[in-house]
Amino acid sequence: MIENVPDAKIRPDIIMKGTMFNLLVLRKRIFEIENCFILQPGIPPKKGSVKAGDYYIIFGKGSWRKSHNDQYPKEEIRLKTVRESWANAMGINWPMNERELAEAIPPAYT
To answer: Among 9, 22, 59, 97, which is least packed by CB within 10 angstroms?
Structure first.
């Protein structure tokens, strides 16, 4: 199995997004799977957007927003720190720093 970002030059046998697992991160990923037939699970429509503060965008060294045009995450989903919020958004409940979280695949995808 190979996992990568949507623009990668691999065959997209399965596509996963955080909305499939009720996560607070969109984190679209594609998976190429050899010697296995599997049907694409349904991807529910997202309600809201990163720009409106409904989801987290997880990138780089740790920030609430990617640009000044983005809203801060809404208070009902925001925790004390960026690290805690990112981990919660991806369903990760063990220690990771911001750089590790920025590269992580949400465990629900496995």
So the answer is: 9
Give the DSSP H/E element, type plus range, for residue 15: strand 14-16
CA distances from 35 to 1, 89, 97, 98 (A): 10, 32, 35, 35
* CA distances for 44 relative to 13, 56, 94, angstroms: 18, 17, 28
Backbone angles phi, psi at 52, to 5 degrees: -85, -5
Q: At 86, phi and psi to the nearest 5?
A: -60, -45
pTM: 0.82
- Give 92's pLDDT tier (boundaries 50, 70, 90): very high
Token code pair at residue 69: 């045009």
